[in-house]
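User: Show me sequence and structure for the first protein, then do the same for the second.

Assistant: Starting with the first protein.
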Amino acid sequence: MTNPTSTRTCAIDAAIDSLDGAFFKALCEPSRVAVLKRVMQLGRADIAEIAEGLPQERSVVSRHLQVLLEAGIVRATKVSRQMFYEVDGPAVVTRLEAILQHMKSLAPFCCPGAPK
């Protein structure tokens, strides 16, 4: 028989892992969100175009883009010596749907809410 406290603890840990993953960490810094917004506004763009409208140095913008890339929020395409970035909409939607499904499966065990 499974211990209810152990099940709840495992569910809580799994929920926190989902919410504390690279996807949400990439979106928790305002300057990185500003970089993401700029990419959304421009569509497909290189680092020079993206950095042009932002107060950060190009190297900082580049690092933010790398974090967004690693989180699967943007995708990069290399053309000759230039790297072009764009938001990967389908990947973002897929990731959010997966997180939602995961949380729905865990909620009864870790955070059931008020009794009905």
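Switching to the second protein now.
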Amino acid sequence: MSLQSPAPAAGADPLPLLEPHLPPPPPFWPPAPGWWLVAALLAIALIAFAVRRHRQQRRVREFQRFFDASIDAVEGAPARIAMMSELLRRAARRRDPAADRLGGDDWLRFLDAGQSIPAFSAGVGRSLLEGGFRRDVGEQEYAALREIVRGRFVELMRHEGPRRSWRRPSTWWPSHSARRRA
């Protein structure tokens, strides 16, 4: 038994094969629903990034305006340098609550922490230590000091500080404090 197909008849043509009909390629527009979702998520991410960046820049401008207004509110270079030191100490407490108690070179090293150039301990920033007590502060020295102090003030103020726990301490809850007293 042979499994061969029967031979065509002597005068008959074999069946002609036609080219298969392919469907048209999918159109470029409108995209599939998944692409709409990707585009929407990308748009939301870009908008969120832009809003966050705008808020950060607005905060920086507010810190700069506050610094400038505080410095301009006092008269004389020594008083302004003393105000700069006070503002820096207030801002430093955001990073480290004990930073306002530092003095001398420790204070200047704290201000230089994280900086590529030690502008406070080795530069014009040293005048923060005695500049508030000197009467002969030059205008160029004051202007240079103001710029580096303003930049460092903004950096310290942008620091969020330690993260707070979402839970309140147990002493704030009346039921817990009543148990402790009893």
